[in-house]
Design goal:
Blueprint lengths: L2 E2 L15 E8 L6 E7 L2 E3 L2 E3 L2 E7 L6 H4 L3 E3 L2 H4 L4 E5 L2 E14 L5 E9 L12 E11 L3
Parallel strand pairs: 1-4, 2-11
Antiparallel strand pairs: 2-3, 3-6, 4-5, 6-8, 7-9, 8-9, 9-10, 10-11
Amino acid sequence: MIDVFSDELMAKFEKKLLSPRLAILSKCKYSNSYNLCFQLCPFYYAHELIDSNISFEGLELPSPFLKDLLGLTLVFDENECDAFNGCFTIKSIHNPVDLYQLAFIESRDGYLKVIAKIKIDFEFEQFDDFENLELVINATVASQIL
């Protein structure tokens, strides 16, 4: 776990705090699309332990099976980013997340890994003292789809 106590870090949210440990693929309950949730490693922010995730709802994928996603790369333009309802919650504040690219690759240990190019919009809610944050996150994928 990483601890953030310095006021000097308040202007820019540290990318290293957002360390995914697992990505979970699931089916949307009310549509034929999918959800992808990056479970983050817990971290300290403003003297509080944060256990959060970065999630996307409404992804259109060609298959619900992980083996079929191997090698798939999806690139989204500005208009498509808004359709996924991406979110990062910190201290009960929901920050929108834009998804620009999603790639499924085989990791060295033989598992499926997902890599996402994203932007967190901190200026949308109460974290407007933070700059918006662009970064690439990745994690091994697990599926809740039977």
